[in-house]
Amino acid sequence: MVLEIKGFQVLPLALPKSKEDGVHYMYFKKHEQKGGQSGNRSIFLVNVPIETNTSVVKRYLQEVAIGATLESYVPSLLTDSPEDIHIDLTSLTSDLKVSGKDEQYEVSSKLPKNCGIITFIDKPAFQIAFNSLKKLASDSKVSKWPLPALGSSHFLSNLQAQLLEPSKLSKDVASALVEFNRAEKESA
Amino acid sequence: QSGPPSKKQKKQLSAQDIQVARETAELFKSNIFKLQIDELITEVKLKDGHVNKIEKVLHRLHDCITQIPPATDLSLDDVNKLFDSKKLVIPFPDPKPSKVNYKFSYLSPEDVSLVGSFGLKTGISQASGSSIDITLTMPKELFQPKDYLNYRALYKRAFYLSYLADNLIPLSKKNNLPIKISYKFLNDDVLCPVLRLESIKTDNPEDLSFHKTKFTINLIVGFPFGVFDAKKLLPDKNCIRVQQIDDSKSLPPTPIYNSSLISLTTYDYYLKYLYTHKKSTEAFKDACILGRLWLQQRRLGSSINSGGFGHFEFAMLMAALLNGGGVNGNKILLHGFSSYQLFKGTIKYLATMDLSSGYVSFSSLIGENITSKYKSDGFNVPTLFDKNVKLNILWKMTQSSYTILQKQAQETLGLLNDVVRDRFDPILLQSSQIDQMKFDIIINLDIPEDVFDSFGPLEKISFITFDNFVKHKVYLILKNALGDRITQLSIKSKKAQSNFPINKRKPSSMSDSFSIGLKLNPDESEKLLTKGPNNEDEQAGLKFRSFWGSVASLRRFKDGSIQHCVVWSVNNSEPVVLTIIKYALDLHFSNHISDHLNSEITKFNNFLPTPLLGSAAQSVSSTVSFTNLKSSFEEMSKILTNLDLPLSIKSIMPASTGLRNSSLLQPVPFAASNPNFWNQVVLQFETSTRWPDEISALEKTKTAFLLKINEKINSETNYSSFITKDDSVPFNEDICLLNILTPEGYGFKIRVLAERDEVLYLRAVSNAEKQKALVQEVYLKFNQNYLGSVKHTRTVSVLAHHFPFYSPTVRLFKQWLDSQLLLHHFNDELVELIALKPFVDPAPYSVPNSIENGFLQILNFLANWNWKEDPLILDLVRNNPGEDDFDLSDKLSIQAYQVIQKNFEKIRKSDPSGIKTQFFIGSKDDPSGILWSNDLTLPIASRLTALSRAAINLVKAQGINDDQLDLLFTPALKDYDFVINVKTTDLTASSGILPANAFKNLIGSLTSFADDITTLYDLIQEFVKELNKKFGNAIIFSTRKFTGLNKNGSNVIGCVFIPTNLAKKKFRVNLGLNFKPVEDSNDEVIVNKEAIIHQISLLGGDLIESIKSKK
Lengths: 188, 1111
Fold this sequence. Notes:
The complex is a heterodimer.
Chain A: E1 4-5, E2 8-14, E3 24-31, E4 42-46, H1 54-64, E5 70-75, H2 89-93, H3 103-110, E6 115-120, H4 123-138, E7 143-144, H5 152-161, E8 163-164, H6 166-187
Parallel strand pairs in A: 2-7
Antiparallel strand pairs in A: 1-2, 2-3, 3-4, 4-6, 5-6
Chain B: H1 7-44, H2 48-66, E1 71-74, H3 76-82, E2 104-106, E3 111-115, H4 116-120, E4 131-137, H5 152-174, E5 179-185, E6 193-199, E7 216-222, H6 255-263, H7 267-280, H8 284-297, H9 311-322, H10 339-352, E8 359-362, E9 373-375, E10 384-386, E11 391-392, H11 399-416, H12 424-429, H13 435-438, E12 441-446, H14 457-463, H15 466-482, E13 486-493, E14 499-501, E15 513-520, E16 529-534, H16 538-548, E17 552-556, E18 562-567, H17 576-588, E19 597-599, H18 600-607, H19 624-641, E20 649-654, E21 678-685, H20 695-716, E22 720-725, E23 736-741, E24 747-753, H21 755-767, H22 772-802, H23 806-819, H24 828-840, H25 851-864, E25 872-873, H26 894-910, E26 921-922, H27 938-958, H28 962-968, E27 978-983, H29 1000-1003, H30 1019-1031, E28 1035-1039, E29 1050-1057, E30 1065-1066, E31 1075-1077, E32 1084-1087, H31 1089-1100, E33 1104-1109
Parallel strand pairs in B: 4-7, 8-10, 21-24, 25-26
Antiparallel strand pairs in B: 1-2, 3-4, 5-6, 5-14, 6-7, 8-9, 10-11, 12-15, 12-19, 13-15, 16-18, 17-18, 20-21, 22-23, 23-24, 27-29, 27-33, 28-29, 30-32, 31-32
């Protein structure tokens, strides 16, 4: 069994109802950031199972690494996109420094498809998680990866999510335009 | 004098320019054509080896013939006993002779000559083989002057023929010429049996076998030229005397008999006539070959069942036109013409001169230079009359076959006049052989036995065969009944047999099965009213009533006139034309004959889903449902335009399939499960300089406007609306659309186009460096949704109006694509452009006017088109009839054509095998040619081609019946790696489709929207969308977009792993695929198929019934 590949640990996962041959392989390593504020509290994941979000990661860690308190999970923006590369149309069309998007978006837009970064609240929490995952990987032990029930309810809520609430949308639009005007004035 | 040219002078100059341009183009075309012709002529030339072999054969055959001993003065009794009837029977024409007071003899032929195209050296090599005609002229002394009467000459000839056969059998054996002899009716003429000699393959090296040449030899026994008084055999004379009950009536003329008899005297004679033209006109021979090819590709020929106009008739007409042919006898063709000019001149003559109401009179007398003349008052039968021989060369033609020839010539003339592109292929190389594409409706008619009784003695002498009689009678009835609802009417015998063994007097099977082919006039064919004469016109009224019988009635029309008319009722699947045919044939041909009549057209029409509408049945080309949608759109536009907004609305432009009559399902109010329920609309505000110069802020500003409209609509009108996110342009996450539901029950999705949009996207393209190609695609998507779809909708709406059968045809084509799980891979626009091909450019067929014809022509086009090498360039502008065809203002010009051609070449330079862009469809709307096909990859494109081929082959091989049709619309699921069977709620009725086997009044039409409209959407489409996002880089997913067309909301998703991604790969963080480590390798990974399939099953959850993998 391959335990490590190009510096990444290989973590076998069993998704709900999975049989032996349906084992999923996720790859991880310590996420080293240049001068990042999160200061070595993050793990970089490759080939994350579908529909992984913060609560899924949380539930998984509760099972395999008790005490590893999660700060955030940032998936790649491309994971649920048909595209392979992200393009920022704003920077291609304007020199204005519009800061409408948050920091997480910035990270997310740079990650390759099906990758993600989990960040823990502190170094000890990170260490617990990292050690547990390493142990699982080196033992080639298949751990259970939780996944919410999908199917019709999932698709229906996707469809409903496309309908935007006018008052919230109004607010978003208004604040984005205020920010744009600010940026425009600054550059003038 | 030399001042600046006045305006008028300028104009004249430009007219002259046009004339020069026209001539240059014509000359240029003539030259190109010449090169192509030269190449073609060499290609079709008979092989020298074959010709040499055949010449040997003919010599040996001639030797055999000369060895036949004479037999003289035999009585009918002698003759009947002469041959062993098990081996040889005399092919006497009907009725068999019983008592005769003359003798039968065989004397050596007066003359044996090679005739026909082999004799004239205009024969061409054909895959199916060709035949060589040899005439043996019976000696004059065998005839008496009165032998032209009552089949006498033909009886003598029949004996002569069988005696010839009887002797050739042993003689050919003795002379080592192994042949099989059978009888054949030359050109389907039952009065003219000939001997057909076929080579037999033997092992004896001495034997002269010629089977490899694929030639057969026809031994035609002819009469000496001028042996009968030709005046007595004119078409209006009677030469078969039969007894009548009422002697006072004169006997009807016997034109077929008369002409057949004269023809038998002319084989050698006309060869000489044509030969002199070949000598005097250098290009005559090549032009004959072109004519022959042209006719052959259109399945036209000299034989009766092929229309009676073949290469012989073509050559004779051409010869006549070299000696005049104009109204004043002016020469239509000149001796110095090139083969192209001779061919074009003859085609033009056929296209423009009516040889049925008028005729051409010429003289075949060689050396006299007698002028041929066109005369406008003719005999109402196709006529090319030889004054010298007193023969109508076109005697085997009918009114029906003549109109077909004329239409073909007209279509070809149009192609020959095309100055924009080269039309050589459809004129001479492509064949139009499939009847289902030649005609709009095909009806099969089986004649029950009792009808044979109506073929009495007088009918017999007029028409000679039952076949001719039926064709004539049916033609007259249908022509009268259908009037200008049809433009062509062909009646063919399905079982016509012209070959039969020499131990039979005639072919065994009776011709009792006919195929009626109709070309419809789309403007008239579906009308529910057959208008008759005014009430005041008593005589015409009487005639009308007697033809229509009980269904005729009198009606007062809006203008106050009272007219005779017939009102027909509609049926969803049966065209009005078919209803009329059934009625008319029952009334005038034979009672209950309609029970013996069937047509594929109803099956095709039945395939289109019936809309769940409250209104009455509608014909297949009805556009009522589309018109309702359009008025709802217009009403909504009015309301929007009148809203009080900070920036007023300039235009609201339709951009949806429903608004251009091409949505698979007809628009039905409140049918929100229809995937095309929402109609895209592009809105533009009045010009403003205040749009932000940044793409995200620009979209937000648009959204602010939409929010304003949304608020007003919901508070001030009885419309309802909401705003949704839109992902039609990748990477532009800020686009919002306004969704409006109208009180009439339709949905519109409004997107805003601002003046700055295109500028910004293009700026992004020019600023993009590494990702230029990707950003270009973003621009294309923007262009599709905001600009292209608007233009496309405008163009297609006009064309759908111009071609009434385009709409139902494109809908059926979409349904077929969907049944094959392909539709969702294509843009609707691309599908519609493909479907337009046979409408705007149908050659070698003509514009289809039924869904069967249109649908098959589309498949036929797809089956044969080579996308890798050829750009499809469509001229989507229709010229109005009567307009000067050189007015290029709107039509695709040569320049525009070349620009598109160049764009194609550019694309193929970078993508030679079309892996990225397989389809290229250029038009005035889209000279780039790739707006709608840019992301259509090779596997999908090849699948479309392969499936079309399979479909066309199926139709060619087995015709069309219910089973075949079902098969055409059944997906080939075995081609997928695994198939997911899914199920959602039943979406049929909520998609606006009347469920199969359900009664409309029990289902009830939809009357309101659901509270949450999303509950009516098809979740399977959502599922597939997610599959594509998550696994689209590993698997191609295919599904039916229109789940509502399936029973019980079932559907399938066909999955194929993308082969290039199946190989092992080096581990990379950005592989993007679900992969697993490869054992014994420290850096390689491979796609984890099992995990993918498992996650697909988790994603689908309760929607999945089963997943079946290919074993």
